[in-house]
Amino acid sequence: MTWGALFVLAASVLWGTTGTAATFAPDVSPLAIGAAAMGFGGLLQAAIAARPMKAFGSSLQSQWRTIALGALAVALYPLAFYSSMHLAGVAVGTVVSIGSAPLASAVIERVVDKRPFTRRWVGGAVLGVVGAALLCVADDGKADSAVAAAPGWSTPAGISLGLLAGLTYALYSWAAHRVIKTGVPSRAVMGAIFGTGGLLLMPVLAATGAPIVASWQNEAVAAYMAAVPMFAGYVLFGWGLARVRASTATTLSLAETVVAAVLAVAVVGERLPALGWLGAAMIAASLFVLTLPAPRGRKLRSQGRVEELLGKTDQVARGV
Q1: DSSP one-letter string for the chain
Q2: Which of 153-167, 209-223, 249-263, 300-314 has the lowest mean pLDDT?
Q3: Distances in Å between the alpha carbon of 118 and those of 32, 122, 180, 288?
Q4: CA triplet 263, 89, 252: central angle to 5 degrees?
Q5: Which residue from 31, 78, 141, 147 has the fewest beta carbons nearer than 10 Å?
Q6: How open is the CA angle 68-189-235, to the nearest 5 degrees?
Q7: CA-CA distance, 134 to 236, in Å (whole number)?
Q8: Number of CB atoms found within 10 A of residue 35's CB
Q9: pTM of the model
Q10: DSSP characters for 270-319?
């Protein structure tokens, strides 16, 4: 699990830069930013995965329903995520979107895959979600002037869109993990899901993307977000999904909220009070719980139970 966790954490660090990067293109709408970042990032995923996608074409076609669901979630996620940050503020939008994803992911696995909640996951998720909530509360009222001047419904609407972003994030993570577990390489799966999602976002980009080409700074922001967080980040995320459960991956990605908060303080100039730092510390603790290797004694006990079962099976086979 260690390498899978490290890949997801590395992806989360890259994703945590998106909110701060978006502030450098204030004239570009959140729909345009989301469509450009995830759209081009998804198409790049498909481009580098063309060969494995072709090699495993029949396997991908047999999983077309899951891939279609994942692609639709990929297309909806950035539109909801960046709109959430625009309406509720960068930190609140990020925290709600990412903080709600682990719960949504675990519920999806429980309902669809019949997987029980593990004690470790529950402990890590509780720490992480409470930490995310503290970050959200600490950031309350500290949105930028544009958000502060918006109508009173903007923050509730932003939080609602953040919950939708969390659900769609959990959905495409679950879909990708499910297809990867059938034996299809992660590059092929991520290329198929994110490439199709990127195509779905092209009409949105065509309708809203004119301000992106209005200045070199807007173009640079869009290029960075497509190439680094969305392309490189999701390559790392795909490698991680091949090694850990989707619910674990979405919980580990809570690290994104810490990165986003730190950058908001260091780069954007926001002030994070003590309550916010406590939330960040709780999220760090949740990541420690989830990535800490299982105690050797527990592994040996599990191995002993397996050997005991095998011994009983052998006795039955010999008629003992």
Answers
A1: -HHHHHHHHHHHHHHTTHHHHHTT-TTS-HHHHHHHHHHHHHHHHHHHTHHHHHHTHHHHHHTHHHHHHHHHHHHHHHHHHHHHHHHH-HHHHHHHHHHHHHHHHHHHHHHHS-PPPPHHHHHHHHHHHHHHHHHHHHHTT-S-HHHHTS-TTHHHHHHHHHHHHHHHHHHHHHHHHHHHTTT--HHHHHHHHHHHHHHHHHHHHHHH-GGGGGSHHHHHHHHHHIIIIIIIHHHHHHHHHTTS-HHHHHHHTTHHHHHHHHHIIIII-----HHHHHHHHHHHHHHHHHHSPPPHHHHHHHHHHHHHHHHHHHHHHTT-
A2: 300-314
A3: 39, 6, 22, 16
A4: 55
A5: 141
A6: 120
A7: 28
A8: 28
A9: 0.77
A10: ----HHHHHHHHHHHHHHHHHHSPPPHHHHHHHHHHHHHHHHHHHHHHTT
Q: Can you read off the two tokens belonging to residue 151?
A: 């109508």
Q: What is the pLDDT of residues 147-193, one digit of tens each?
A: 444 555 676 788 789 889 989 999 999 999 999 999 999 899 999 99
First to last CA, the chain: 39
- Rounded Cα gap, residues 212 and 219, in angstroms: 5
- Token pair in block for residue 160: 């609602």
How far apart are the C-alpha atoms of 290 and 299, rounded to whole Å?
16
Handedness of CA 262, 131, 146, 15 (dihedral sign): positive
318 vs 144, 308, 311, 313, 315, CA distance in Å? 74, 15, 11, 9, 5
Taken in order 290, 291, 292, 293, is the CA torsion positive or negative? positive
